[in-house]
Amino acid sequence: MNRATRIAVIVAMAIAVLAPIGLVVYQSFLDGPFFQPKTAFTLSAYEFVLDDEDFYDALWNSAIIAFGMTAIAVPVGAMLAFLMTRTDLPGQRWIEPVVLVPMFVSSVVLAFGFVVSLGPAGFVTLWVKGWLGFEPWNLYSKAMLIVIAGLTHVPHVFLYTSSALRSLGSDVEEAARMTGAGPLRVALTVSLPMVMPNILYAAVLVFFLGFELFGLPLVLGDPEGILVLATYLYKLTNKLGTPSYQLMAVVVVAIICIALPLVALQRYLLRAANRYVSVKGKAAAQKRVGIGFWRWPAALVIVGWLLFTVVVPISGLVLRAFVSSWGEGVNLMDSLTLAHFHELMQFPNLVRGIVNTLLIASVGGALSVGVYTLLNLAAHRWNSGWTRLMDYLVLLPRAMPGLVAGLAIFWVFLFTPFLSPMRQTMIAIWVAYTLVWLAYGMRLVSGALLQIGPELEEAGRIVGASPARVSRDLTVPLIKVGLISSWLLIFVTFMREYSTGVYLLSPGTEVIGSLLVSLWGSGAVDLVTALSTVNIAMIGCGLLLMSLFGKRSHG
Amino acid sequence: MAKLTIDDLHLSYGSNHILKGITATFAQGEIVALLGRSGSGKTTLLRSIAGLEEPSKGVITIGNAPVFDGAAGLNVPSEKRGLGLVFQSYALWPHKTVFENVAYGLRLRNAPKAEIQQRVGAVLDGVGLGHLGDRYPHQMSGGQQQRVALARALVYNPPVILLDEPLSNLDAKLREEARIWIRDLIKRMNLTAVFVTHDQIEAMAIADRVVLLDGGRIVQAGTPEQLYTEPVSLFASEFMGTNNLVKSRVQDKRGGYVQIELSGFPLWGKDRGGKAVSEDATGVIRLEQVEVVGNGTEGGSGGEGENRIRAELETSLYLGSHWEHVFRCGAQTLRAFGRPLAPGPHWLHLPPEQLWVF
User: What is the CA radius of gyration of chain A?
Assistant: First the structure.
């Protein structure tokens, strides 16, 4: 790529990132929808929101939930990572592939699963009630919400900590053993401190995700009226009868203001973490630490966690999708049925949603990976002010939760004359998805690009290839495997995305995620569970594809 | 005829000056080694010629056409310079077969299919890999990969071929063979070649001319013999061979020779540094030039004389083809090659024309 093309690509990205945010900020200072002819600048929207008790309630709840879930997810995740990578824990081969499942299933689907299994009329609740004679828990409490949010975010901590622990050579541990430290002491004084920056990074990430939480509080917080920032924004749409754009804009600005410093902190920590891990020992031979009798209780705790966060909600949800009625005294075997799926097929919008989801995940995902690759190539092997600008621009969409980004994109498509005809097409959805997952996708592709040495490209220039031909003939073919696995990850990610499409939902732009949110609001539980089951099955296929591809490209 | 000329080339990264005014000419059919320690700027100079680094000042001309001119703002991109470069890591493209690696440069030049087939075949035959065109780079040994890299750089007849530490990734035995066949191939094809190395033996073995660099400047340029036998500075003499160093003070000066002193023994040596009387100076003599002339015990053979010193044999190392002896004379140690010696004192002769004083 030559200089002019690189700059053009970066400018295009800057517009795509800044336009939605700029529009939201602009809207927040108006007294009516931005597209109405007579609007004036005012701070009234800020005054209204800052006077609203519900807003402070939501802010407070978000803070408590974010703190609470971090306090649960970080120790559990770090411990899990240590047990899985460094010890002779039994059953690792079975546990390993299941650990990340909560990350890949959309949290709104997991939330439905918890309602169906552990809710007041849930399968497990009724079963336990039959034993004890009373209901031992209340799913719709704030404490339960925090526990569920914490336990479902354990995989995030696990992922970052375990990858750091894996790249840590066991020679640093052996050195500590040689000087006389026992296994536990080694873990506490050598292994874990060495990956502390990674744990810290994961902690900030989880805290940040806590502020973004939408699916879980929407489903589990609603019955008791527990609002968080995202659900407050969602409810605001209907609060005043007519859509009050300026109020929504203010809440969005508030969310971005909280998220942006956290994103910046994460970036700083990630750099610190990378610097730390590069001072590692040889990772060639890793010897695991024997923890003796303790491996059994440890394994039991992990299995318990998996039961609670994966098995119970998902099996409950799938079971619920296949039965006509349940409750005390009903034999589930007699009420097995496919009726909910037949019903699903009667609704053209739901069928369209399934087709659209497949399209956005496969074709759209491939196009997005194409965009991420193009952006990466624009900054590839080029150190200048433009690439630093790009580094910062990538952070901005990260500070916008899917719900917020979807709203902003919706407005951009409403506002820009040549875009408005596309507002009710999948193009709008694709733009929103690509933007929301920009930072994630960019990292996937740049990871692949980092693998190729600069001299492979220089050799191309020397034998006579222009920069464009080097990209086409050498760079892209060299990262082909990385691009395919990026596409598979984006495929699963787009498949489970639910919040981004919420505001963009209209005839023609249905996707499973946004349909689930709106169906849940209407109380159609049969359809919700059937559609969720379809979604889980699709994600399962994606994960299967991923593991098959991973095996092939390594073998 | 000058094939490649470099005139007052400067290059810096920020405030870090890498090249500080390099001027050199490379004649048609000549093999030149750029020799220096790491950080001397030799690889940067090579990459500047290739167009992979952008100098801040100076002129680079290939044939008659300038490819870089700092003052005129001219910087021809790498792909338009038409040079060949063999990378230290070989940089073979792992997704292309050996044939495709070599053919890529011809495809970029829109050569017809039949011609590509013929020329790639010929150059692969030339490096002795004619039968391995269908393999992928990872299926080949290091030595074979290096031959492919060379073939890739040669196939489109570049005016100048550049080699970046071409032998450093080979093991010792292969390296000695490669020196011979690479020089042979370049000479047979009458190519102009510039190669970078940090190994003075390798430079002397392959090159017609050696350019010694240090700290971004050329220290000395000339034939391998000139560099070895007439180094212009202490650095050059130290870099090109293994020496004994005598730190001393100039005692006397006469007819191009100066007198220094080693633990009380006066020694005459060639005046290379132009130091005045009573200035600090360093005497340098190659290990192989120190002669053991006789037993130093009372009444032993040989004895005192001009430029001779009496030294105690401290230890001897057996190196297979010869012995290396370490002598001590006062605070000074001296090393010399030779046949096995009895322990005790010996007389050593340091010929004045081989002892250089800087």
Answer: 25
- Interface predicted TM-score of the whole assembly (ipTM), two decimals: 0.81
Q: In what order do the strands lie in the sheet with B65-69?
A: B16-27, B2-13, B57-62, B65-69, B74-75
Regarding beta strands B252-254 and B291-295, do their DSSP bridges make them parallel or antiparallel, or are they unpaired? unpaired
- Domain A53-238+248-336: CATH superfamily is MetI-like (1.10.3720.10)
Å between A306 CA and nearest CA of chain B? 42
Facing A462 at nearest CB: one of B78, B89, B93? B78
Torsion of CA B29, B33, B34, B38, to 10 degrees: 150
Q: A-B interface: how many C-beta pairs under 8 angstroms?
A: 64
Instruction: Tell me the residue ranges of DSSP E strands in B45-159.
Output: 57-62, 65-69, 74-75, 84-86
Domain boundary assignment for chain A: 53-238+248-336, 338-555
* DSSP letter assigned to residue A518: H
CB contact under 8 A, A455 and B87: yes
CB-nearest partner of A458 from B52, B104, B152: B52
Residues of chain B with CATH 3.40.50.300: 2-237
| CATH architecture for residues B2-237 | 3-Layer(aba) Sandwich (3.40)
From the candidates A383, A452, A462, which should be mutated to test the interface with B, based on the most B CB atoms within 10 A? Answer: A462
Q: Which are the contacts of B13, defined by CB distance < 8 A and separation ≥ 6?
A: none
Residue contact A473–B104, C-beta within 8 A: yes
Q: pLDDT tens, position by position, for chain A (555 residues)?
A: 778 889 999 999 999 999 999 999 998 998 888 877 778 888 888 988 888 888 999 999 999 999 999 999 999 998 888 888 888 888 888 888 888 888 889 899 999 999 999 988 888 888 888 888 888 888 899 999 999 999 999 999 998 888 888 877 677 777 777 777 777 777 778 777 888 888 888 999 899 899 889 999 999 988 888 999 999 988 887 666 667 888 888 988 998 888 888 888 888 887 776 665 544 444 445 667 777 777 888 889 999 999 999 999 999 999 989 988 776 666 777 778 888 898 889 999 999 999 999 999 999 999 999 999 999 999 888 878 888 888 888 888 888 888 888 889 988 988 888 888 888 889 999 999 999 999 889 988 988 888 888 889 999 999 999 988 999 999 999 999 889 999 999 999 999 999 898 888 888 889 999 999 989 888 888 899 999 999 999 999 998 888 888 777 654
Check if A136 contacts B (Cβ < 8 Å): no
Most distant CA pair in chain B, distance: 84
∠ Cα A259 A262 A267 (to 5°): 125
State the CATH class of domain A338-555.
Answer: mainly alpha
Chain A residues with CB-CB distance to B153 below 8 A: 462-463
Dist CA A55 CA A103 (whole Å): 29
Q: Give the pTM.
A: 0.84
A463/B91 Cβ within 8 A: no
A53-238+248-336 and A338-555 agree in CATH topology = yes
Say whether residue A304 is in contact with chain B using an 8 A CB cutoff.
Answer: no
Residue of B nearest to A458 (CA): B52
